[in-house]
Fold:
Amino acid sequence: MTLKVERVAEHKPPDWPGTHVPKQMHLDLFVTDLDVAEKAAIGCGAVKGDSQPAPDR
Structure:
């Protein structure tokens, strides 16, 4: 399986759980250590959303 991620000029991130700017994609990832994986994702440029419906998973 290949997953390709690209930057989009003038990208507007979704405001989930709001509906003004809808989600463009949803991707579930399974990890063994959530804290380590979160730090790695943020280190790659991810942004943690304010709303976390299942913060322990």
Notes: DSSP finds one helix and no strands in the chain. The mean pLDDT is 83.
